[in-house]
Batch of 2 targets.
Target 1
Amino acid sequence: MAALLRSARLLKISPASLLQITGANIHGSAVARLCGGAIGGRVAGIRATQVTHSFGVNRVSWPYAGVRHFAVAPKQQGVSKDEGSSAVRARQAQQFDWALGKLDSSVRRTGRITKTLLLRIFHDICRSGYPSGNQALLLLRSCGSLLPEMPLSERNELAHRIWDKLQELGASYDASHYNALLKVYLQNEFKFSPTEFLAKMEAANVQPNRVTYQRLIAAYCQEGDIEGASKILGFMKSKDLPITEAVFNSLVTGHARAGDMESAENILPVMRGAGIEPGPDTYLALLTAYAEKGDMEKIRQILEALDKGDATLMDRDFMQLVFSLARAGHHQHVPEVVERLRHDRGFIPDAMNLCLSLITQGQEDTAFAVLKTFPTLQAEAQNGDSPELGNFFLRHCVNMDKSVEKLQTYCKELQDSGLHSSALQFTLYCTLEAKKTGMAVHLMKVMKEQGLPIRPHYFWPLLTQHQRDKNTQATVEVLKGMQDLEVLPDVETYSSYVLPTFDSLETARAALKEAGFSVDTEGFSASEVRAEAVNLPKLLVLLSSPSCPAVDLSLFRGSLTLGFKKSSDVECMTKITELLYQDPRFSQTSGGPAEAVSYFLYNLIDSMTEEELLAQEEKLRQYFHQLKNTNVRIPVNIYRGIRNLLESCHVPELIKDVVILVDGKEAIDTLDIPRGKEGRGVGLEKRLEELKAENKPLGATLKQLILSLCAEEKLDRALELKAQHEEDMAVGGYAALINLCCRHDNVEEALNLKREVQRKDSSVALDAGKYLALVKVLSKHGKVDEAVDILKEMKQKDVAVRDATVALIFHVLNMAGLRGDAATVRRLQETIFSLGLAKPTANLCSPLITAYLESGDLTGALDAVLECHKQYNQMPRIHDVLCGLVEKGETELLQKAMDYVSQERGEMTMLYDLFFAFMQTGKHREARKIIETPGLRARPGRLQWFAEKCISNNQMEALEGMVEMTAKLFECDRDEMYHYILRLCKDTNDWRKADATWTKMQEENVIPRERTLLLLADIFKSNGQEVPFEVPEVWYEGSTEAPQQDSKSKSTFSAPSPAPTPLSPSDYQLRLFTLCKRGKVQEALKLLKEVDQKGMVLGPAPYDSLIRSLLAKGSIEDAMAVRDIATTRIGSFQLSEVANSLLVISQVKCGKVKEAQATLTSMLQADQVPSQLAVTRLVQGLGTRGEARAVQEVESTIKAMASSLNLSRMLFINNTALAHIKRGDIEAAVEGLEAFYTPGSEAQGADAPVASMSYVFRRVMEENNEDALDKLSGMAERLANHFAVYRPASDLFLQYLESGRAEDAKFLLQRCAAISEQKDVLLSYVTRAAQKPGQVHKIKTMMELIPDFTEKEVMYPYLIKSYSQDNDLPSAKALYQKMQEEGVAADELCLKRLATLYRNGGEAVPFEEPPESFKFYADKLREKTKAQSLVEDD
Amino acid sequence: MAASSRKVFEVFVSKIPWTIASREVKEYFSQFGQVKKCLLPFDKETGFHRGFCWVGYATEEGVQNALQKEAHLLEGSRLQVQKNRKPGGTQRQNRDSDGS
């Protein structure tokens, strides 16, 4: 139910999410107003310090509230300082963000944190080795009332554990931490001495602050110690600290607990006297005091007064009252208070937490009473699922070991009142999960009495634990439980959950017998057979014994396969196979022994990998030959399956050895024998002649020959052959011919062949690919009727349509769409959908829209979209249509479109659609209005979609615009947004923009994740700029620089350093850190060795830090030496993620790719996340060494985290290709790349058209591998000409330019003219080239080759920029003159550049130099282009 | 690509309540055609199954029959039955298990 509650809650919040925050603000300011000016804005967070609030959570007081929820920031600032939310920086940022995100989302969804989650985060933070102050704070704060499921004392123990452990790991504590600890003490009602606490703070040299004193007062008051509280109060007064409402509230509680209700009541007038109006919390303190006394009359009076006045209590306050009443034993009054609950927004999570707290503290009956008042959820009734109210309640009761009788009553009541359909089953589930054997068996008895089934697998969760502990006693206990319940353990129970617990089968058998179980059951015997299957001789004995019961092969086939793979005892294998073949005991299913055994052989081969097959080839050969001597025979169809397996694993030699086992060999024709690869065509022609001469049937050979000719694209020869041997032609031959004709665009011949084959045999069906090739060529030549007929034939003949076929269908439609031929698309589309050949997906519907868009008919396009939606519930290319409408200013149509989207897909979707359309068309003002719509929240998926679009099309302006406009968007992940911009900066290598972005991030208070910082640092470094912050990861520095630095450091640092006094470990630790940080690694290493010789042990952090520094300098050996030292000193020492990532990089750099891969694997096993750089380097290293398979291995292991690491799929695709090339298998490389780029194939993904393979081209050119380049070039051309995928061709073209092969570029351009239309890619190349000196010739070559790919107004400024990079005044002058002649106006930025050139060249500037800075004009230019596009649009 | 040539007639069943084991699933789905295999993976760590299962029929007809039924109710729970998207979803890693 929890999930449902969650979604229901989210729905409630969604429209008003902004309101919620506004509410928080109002609340804060109201309190401030009440408390008067003296206290000011600092009071906002104080409500959370309330003593009696032992389960309430202040939802807005999370430390980062000012970061993520921008809207809250202004009010929170005052509080955040003393609550310790100073900006978190650098290395801990990412992890902090992550941990915070986790805890925060838990609190936001449920108002609580589970113990498991908290412990996991604690563990993770410890693992990383560097707890930051903020992380410590975060963990400590979570140990109080956020854990309603934990008993108070346990919570406090946990807090202390965390406190000590983090301190040990080097976290330093300030006042915020002590205050957090105090709060936890209060929430956990922990008894401690405030004076001692203060002494401890003093000893640690931490100054207490106002919050500390307030909480100490609260602590005294909790104990009813007014005297103690007064002491502190006096102290506060003497220090002139303001006394807030919270202090008075504590005093109310204090007096009440001291038994003096009169004084408690008297606090209120005192407050008023001091200018503070009592607030809801004051009244709550008073109410709680009366609740503890059970004085309902007083409570009623106060509530009545409150109803009249203006202070109102919230549900949460009433729940506090319920809690206090129950704990004080006044259950009878609970219903009266429960009645007052209003079920406000957020009621359910709060009420759940109330129930949990009550159960934890032994008040489960009260909790159940509250549970029953939960509003029933309509959502559950609607979606038809059975009701499940109270799962959380039952689970917690189980965890708290409430009695089965009680549980039974609760379950019955839930079930009878229709609140829960399977309460008992769920309770049992929880019990099993918690491994409570006794309770589980007891519950099952209850269930059995009620007639519910009890099944063997119910006991498995109990057995798993005992299996892990090797606890045979407990295992037997569980089995006894099964026996009591008359549940017979089946083979799975024994094999998987019982036998592994015992040392051997014999001990198991003995133990079970001794405990009085029967071991002759089928379940046990089968499991015995299965266990022995890995030991073939023993198995043979067992199986051939007459006492062996009937056990079907299927029950142990898997284990037997395993046994056969491991064994080398061919004789035994043969005997077992024979036994299985003959003895009916082992094949009780329908097919009989022959089939069962044959399938077993198939499974055996199938379960082996290519390597295993190769390694065991000889063994298998012997095995098959020995089998031949028995009467074991296999049917032809299974032989074919085996043959295919062997062929695909490249062990065709073995086929000959299997074929001898085939039953009825005459059924095997020539095709079934293994085929050789080379010289087939020639050989076959010869063979055909021979056969003809001998007057033997030609059929099979003719077909093979035709197929091989078709594969070689020799259409004419194939047609000739067909004409010669028309009567011997088989269907397969025709099919290949038809396909070839279609590819050669020979529509008449294709139709002829089709008719011919039809005449021969009208029932014959081609495969889907051939049919669709026909449809494509027919529709291309305007023969739509014939095309439709072909589609109908496909349906009639029931041609199987697979995923690949769907891709082909898309292709056929899209070709017509791109021609702008809407009528044809519509006709084909309707036929395809109405025949049911393919489902109407968005992709398949899109060609119709494409057709209208291509012909510029927006009205038609929109109508087509709406029609698609009505018919097929799809809205294909809606974004493109909207952009078109916006661009053309078609307001009415736009309105129509938006109304429709809003009605069908919801307002939010509509708003995003419109927003993106405005952004895309440069109408930022309009876009801003849309995104600022109140109530709109971030949809990360959609924002990402647009960002990726901008990145791939190099649209910085649109991207920046979006990032800026979403600054205040609710729940928008700001780091993510800035990361997009930086990615584009990286692509265009624009470090200035990156720098500006970095500044903006600071301005907006965004805490960057580690990967963002790394990216930023990378951009700076690759442009030779200094990195303006501490880089989170130590970077790999070229070993050439290192020694220099080192020698310098020695002279400057080591001289004054001899330390006369003995140093403590922590001093050494500090020095090590400092040395590492300053890059003085050798010195640090020396120091560590000294320390080690003294036998001193440091914490894990300094070792790790040194290892990372060493790796950064490339000293793997030294690093490993340090690791060894660390492991001997600290047994559990393990490299941190960062260190391991660096190790991977270093290993790759030294050429040890296999080791690097092993390191990566071990990282993943240890649950560590490798850095992006590490994975990239490793994959590149593997690619360079031709390890295609390893590349794929890495891809598959890393798959789950690839997107979070921001790894592009291209990394793997490109390097797989390079690996194939390295090994000389260019075909495989081409095949892989081509499959990826071929559009429409859904498996290959939507990113294909934009993903760059420049890397492959570059590497191939660098290695002068002309052969590979040829083939890749051919592929690029094919993709461009057949599929209109231009990216590879463009990449190749630019790579030619890049490596100075202008001629090749020119020829490529001639063959693929469309490259010149790839304006974005080309322009982005120019942009990049203009940023580095010495690149001008590339730009020029490009302009010569494609003179008009963009306007001169765009090109010339880049050229000027490039000249100015080279400081080439003469060329710049010449260009400027040319510009003036051609009437191209130079903008101010250009003039500024020119002027600088003149001045650098010592010449006078012949025009008036623009007075402002470069930046000024750059900005101005940007503004101008922006404004221009707006004017044009309006 | 050894798997691509094999014909599999599988449906993918999810939202299976924990109380049901493969015997019950097989029994239930047999009403639509001969069930050749039924793979309900259990998590050996927890001892519970993962809530989903592949049911393999002898013929395409079985698949179609199973898919055509609107609601699949088993012991009060509504099962979700889909066409198996990834043919051979029961490939190598699962092949070694017994009892299929």
Target 2
Amino acid sequence: MIGGLFIYNHKGEVLISRVYRDDIGRNAVDAFRVNVIHARQQVRSPVTNIARTSFFHVKRSNIWLAAVTKQNVNAAMVFEFLYKMCDVMTAYFGKISEENIKNNFVLIYELLDEILDFGYPQNSETGALKTFITQQGIKGQHQTKEEQSQITSQVTGQIGWRREGIKYRRNELFLDVLESVNLLMSPQGQVLSAHVSGRVVMKSYLSGMPECKFGMNDKIVIDKQGKGGATDEAGKSGKQSIAIDDCTFHQCVRLSKFDSERSISFIPPDGEYELMRYRTTKDIILPFRVIPLVREVGRTKLEVKVVIKSNFKPSLLAQKIEVRIPTPLNTSGVQVICMKGKAKYKASENAIVWKIKRMAGMKESQISAEIELLPTNDKKKWARPPISMNFEVPFAPSGLKVRYLKVFESKLNYSDHDVIKWVRYIGRSGIYETRC
Amino acid sequence: MQEWANQLCENRQFGSKMTDSKYFTTTKKGEIFELKAELNSDKKEKKKEAVKKVIASMTVGKDVSALFPDVVNCMQTDNLELKKLVYLYLMNYAKSQPDMAIMAVNTFVKDCEDPNPLIRALAVRTMGCIRVDKITEYLCEPLRKCLKDEDPYVRKTAAVCVAKLHDINAQLVEDQGFLDTLKDLISDSNPMVVANAVAALSEIAESHPNSNLLDLNPQTINKLLTALNECTEWGQIFILDCLANYTPRDDRESQSICERVTPRLSHANSAVVLSAVKVLMKFMEMLPKDLDYYGTLLKKLAPPLVTLLSAEPELQYVALRNINLIVQRRPEILKHEMKVFFVKYNDPIYVKLEKLDIMIRLASQANIAQVLAELKEYATEVDVDFVRKAVRAIGRCAIKVEQSAERCVSTLLDLIQTKVNYVVQEAIVVIKDIFRKYPNKYESVIATLCENLDSLDEPEARAAMIWIVGEYAERIDNADELLESFLEGFHDESTQVQLQLLTAIVKLFLKKPTETQELVQQVLSLATQDSDNPDLRDRGYIYWRLLSTDPVAAKEVVLAEKPLISEETDLIEPTLLEELICHIGTLASVYHKPPSAFVEGSRGVQHKRLPGSAGSGESVESPDTSSAAGLSEAPPAVIPSQGDLLGDLLNLDLTPPATTGPTPPPSSGMQLGAMDLLGGGLDSLPPIPLRTDTPQSPQLPHQSPSPPDYSPTELGGDLGGSPAMGAAFGAPPAVMPASFNAPVSGGLDDLFDLGGGVGMTMGAYSPPKTIWLPAMKAKGLEISGTFARRAGVIQMEMTLSNKAMSVMTDFAIQFNRNSFGLAPAGPLQVLTPLNPNQSIEVALPLSTVGPVMKMEPLSNLQSGRVHWEATLPACCLPAPVLVLIVDSVS
């Protein structure tokens, strides 16, 4: 199991050091600094073995988090824990920075004592942790016996992510379907790979211990219903259903129920959390198509023309569109002409960045640029990195639709109808690249 | 660094505002003094701030152990935050101040009785972290109570505490019966208590491999599976990792566990998913392949594995390392998912390299076009390592998928045209392998390769190019010029290149003897006379000898047809792979090494094995995968990585890497011939014509006084260039080093010594006797000996000489275990007493049925103990190897 956990600043100075196991000596903390943080070469692996001691590290801005062990630990678990640790810290004091860590070091030690015991991760749900580890010092001494046992049963309980007795005057929930659409396209416009990775993020402000059921246009569910129920409805909705390649759920979702019935039922944590993640590869709506044309005119000039076409309902508006056209390292000057938006050559980034604030569906726009090159002796050809694109569209490129989110709370006097529900779809570009 | 400790306390958002920075600017001595005063202050807030400062100093590595009594005094407080800080301090310094740590015991014991469960748990948790014997004694009673506490939070903490205590004092834990209590907790009503108990038990069981501590039976498994649905993500990992150690009784039980584990594949936590994959991969072995469920399960495994690739890069890396194992074991799972392994421009380099590896493994006729297009793209990237690997991958594709070979070659030629130096070199190295796989097919490209001769500066690429020139000398008009140009700087080349150059020129000579006589003489003299490298020198001699004795035989040996190299490369050896599959998700699977390779002590030394499959014997593959078939049955030849070029060229790795011990080489007949070349007819050799040109050579054989340190593969490799020799020398890698170890130099000398034809009875060669035991070391008994095969029986022939003043009697011999299982076939027959200054010849027949133990080096016969209270020192006995080889033939 995890033998120790260290946090360093960018210089390699120790900000937090907690050792859980006797086999981790005091020199371990220096070994990581010398061999990884101060290493001359770029880090080639997130797992480093130094003198039979293994170090796992992740970096957040310029802070290094390193877990250290001498055993054959579950490596995936260690990384999951490090990410979780980052989440917990962010939930407590915001951004992970040297300043914040120094200011909260007592709190961090307290958290580390609670969520790692002898190197075994324990309950690390912030919802539960915040009930008894607070910045105002422990409530401990003022709690009643009932409160105490409520805390402990929550921390260890089946529903460790939610406490009892939550009350809201207005029961409300927000669902965000956030998708990132990834594309790799050949210069000829052939889709080399495309997938959507989506997340359903929920903000729940619900009283009591509500039982929720979430439904979407999952092809398997719709087909199943279609077989048993009305045929015309199946025909109608069958078209709109989507094939989900795979999905994963927050730990509140009853996985065995999903496995057997494919229904998504759960008691949600309070506040914001990620209900599910999913991935689709079939019938993806690619919001934009990029058509590149690069011509080398002699050895010192390149002509680039890029056309983008929007491919969605004309009534919808895409926002924050940015096209990044890489330029060779020996570029000496660039002239750009674009019909829409603003384009600039950024020498420091070796790219022409073309920004368009808004663009409606079924439109097209183009940019052309002349790139002057310095003659070089460098035999190495320019690698021609792909043209990448960023955007945001108000629909889900996978075609996912939320069908319902039902809320049941038998003990309190509110029903599904009283809950105010909001649903929003946002599609963003993930890695959206076209080779040129 | 010192400053921030003081900042910390200034900037605190909670607690009173401190303006004590002046303490931190004073000298260290003063600082400790001030802290001491503060710690003893009456004001609670001041105390607390002082403890915080102490902790801050501790973190940055200052020694604040001097404050031990003062800090411990602050322990008696109802302020939980302060208490936790004091505990933190205690955990750090208790070990260095054991006597003072005792002061804390009372508070711990008292806290374990506190009405607040959080405080009870805190006390028992902290106490377990204090590794001081006296404290552990006091821990037992509170721990016993806490294990039965009414509050689950306390119980789950106590469960882990048992593991802590076991780490400090295992005996104590057993004596106090904590293990039984811990086992009871597996049936606890609270899932988190169950999970922690499982974690603690698994850890303790690891250090007691045979204790049967984790007595997994269907009932406990059922309890674990129930808890699995209810506990935290971490708890699920503990339980799944524990489940993976269980071996179901039959395929039905196996299936029912799999069914209950599969829902975990949808968990958001990647570690839960990977641990579930581990359980499924292992239990799947027991399912009959024709079962419907088996197919369903295979299909269910792919999507979650693909989903892991959308995790953060570090996790992707762990996932990819594991997928690499999974596709080797069961290629069918991911065979349609090639695209997800395409490299993204922004992937960290470690993810890129791993993806590339998996792409090659998944490459097949169906997807090769796509893969090639990708690889070509990668070959133009920036990162040198990545580009090299991509180029190499193209070559591997060509070897793996025959239909693509032509396209691969043309892609490689395109890349050579880019003239990017390292791309060109890498391409030449892989093209050489392609030639080996498809002889006489792509030789048209040689001209293009030759154009780039001058730009090659890496030894591996130079050696590859030279090999190509030598191999195809008859088709390259100016082969002699090309090779001659390399010869100019012969001594500046690396050994790899020198050896290759030597071989290539000999090949050239054999192909075009008329024009190249001068060249071959030149290289032979460079290799034998001017070089200090024993490998090179001896290879030179052998060629020389071969050429001068019988050019026809030389041709047969050097220009023999080479075996084709096989397609799958870099495969992990099957038993290791099985073990690693049992370790999916863990560090072992990331390193691709068994835990024993990187874990100290007793932990993880046990080797895990996959359970045998039900009914269908050992075969792992499903019928539809032919590529998997190669996996377990015929362990394929492996293209060695850089630096082992020669082995590569001649493809010596014909044996399964798994073979340990002295299995005789599979091929036969040929070896005898090969041996004969070296030994058999030597005494009837005609004089060497070349020798007259080089006056030094007659003495040369005698000029190698020190036993050369042969590197087996290389000698075997080039010597032969023939499969027969390859087999004889290379096949049993275990036996190999023996034949060239120390005393054989005598033998080699003999080989070259024309006059002194040692009696070569029955065609088998036995080296002359060497002194095994000098008289000085054995109270006057000198033993010299050798091994020989007489009439099909291996014999140890010894000369015993009495160099002492008294009579020696009662000889007996005993063999220690050795690599070949050599043991005396009968007693040592020395009938007469051995008088002073008398010698006696003894022949001891040997059998190979004795106990086998692998020795380093293998030929080490840490041999007999002759009963004259003299232990024969570990003799390196070369001959048995030769004898054995011959033996296995007959």
